[in-house]
Write a structure and sequence with these properties.
Blueprint lengths: L1 E9 L5 H9 L17 E6 L3 E7 L9 H15 L3 E7 L4 H9 L7 E6 L6 H12 L6 E4 L8 H11 L17 H16 L9 E9 L4 E9 L2 H8 L4 H18 L3 E9 L7 H6 L4
Parallel strand pairs: 1-3, 1-4, 4-5, 5-6, 8-9
Antiparallel strand pairs: 2-3, 7-8
Helix pairs in contact: 6-8
The protein binds guanosine-5'-diphosphate and magnesium ion.
Length: about 290
């Protein structure tokens, strides 16, 4: 039996959350074309006949500008500390020098595989030049090219990963898929829809807190608060005549129903909490600690 921890690192938008979901075959981590969607360390547990790999998706590496971002980078740090293997993910269409800078700054103790993602989005020549560039780097133990979105080479990647997973007993029960509670994923699914529906600063200055979660006989009743920083943002979240929040509720409910496999009644409220992203007490209340 092999069992160990594999953490995924990279700049925002490299495709880390997409990879976690593809490897697990389940949508655990929310994704979006906007940067900084992931705010937590999200563990996904993949259990096979003779192995258990605990993958950690992490927030993209950035220079923190406010407390929430500091918490996000702490989540990265904890993933560095207990990793048996690091996946250093770079999108084939992103700036390779910047990605290199980020990888070099991690001070990894664990071995690393450079994962070149989004190979569907570049030419063969471009891909070759990226491969040459990273294969010369000291942290590059192995390299693989994949498309997380199109499920390309992921079985090969898993094979490579397993070579670095130490022998040992499983850490989690065989049918566990994450260490996080259902209400965490519910809040995340609502947050994902906020990234889809609202523009500019709104997604970045918003968070979601799930309150009541009641399993009734025919459905699950969930209420959640959408936290924004300013009154003007509350008006935007609501939209004219409540049109936008209604859309948000409908979109989120569908995904939550798919995730928990039950009918859902979802109630959303909007609350203004000035500067919550820089307030220790609010950050703790909203699950960033
Ligand atoms: P993260 O910030 O690193 O977690 O990135 P996400 O997983 O949220 O993905 C960012 C964006 O890249 C999303 O729009 C994904 O659909 C897209 N993406 C991820 N993997 C691929 C891929 O293999 N090919 C292409 N073309 N897009 C991808
Ligand atoms: Mg992500």
């Amino acid at each position: 039996m092999r069992a160990g921890f594999v953490s995924i690192f990279g700049k925002p938008n490299a495709g880390k959350s997409t990879l976690l979901n593809a490897l697990l075959g389940e949508k655990l981590a929310i994704t979006s074309p906007k940067v900084q969607t992931t705010r937590h360390r999200i563990k996904g547990i993949l259990t096979g006949e003779d192995y258990q790999v605990i993958f950690s998706d992490t927030p993209g590496l950035i220079q923190p500008k406010y407390k929430l971002q500091e918490k996000m980078m702490q989540a990265v740090k904890s993933s560095i500390e207990d990793a048996d293997l690091a996946l250093l993910m770079v999108a084939a269409n992103e700036n390779k020098e910047e990605a290199d800078e980020v990888f070099s700054s991690l001070s990894l103790k664990a071995p690393a595989i450079v994962v070149i993602n989004k190979i569907d989005s570049v030419s063969k020549e471009k891909l070759e030049s990226i491969k040459d560039y990273f294969s010369a780097k000291p942290y590059c133990r192995e390299m693989i090219e994949v498309s997380a979105l199109h499920n390309k080479n992921l079985d090969l990647l898993l094979e490579q990963i397993l070579k670095y997973v130490p022998e040992g007993e499983a850490f989690f029960e065989g049918d566990d898929i994450s260490d996080l509670p259902t209400r965490f994923f519910v809040a995340e699914l609502i947050r994902e829809k906020i990234y889809e529906l609202y523009q500019q600063e709104i997604p970045y200055e918003t968070t979601v807190k799930v309150g009541a979660f009641e399993e009734k006989t025919t459905l699950t009743k969930i209420s959640a608060d959408i936290i924004v920083q300013r009154e003007s943002q509350k008006a935007i979240i609501l939209g004219e005549g409540g049109r936008m929040i209604k859309q948000l509720g409908t979109d989120a409910r569908k995904d939550i129903e798919a995730f928990i496999g039950r009918k859902v009644f979802l109630e959303l409220f909007v609350k203004v909490r000035p500067k919550w992203r820089d307030n220790e007490m609010f950050l703790k209340e909203y699950g960033y600690s």
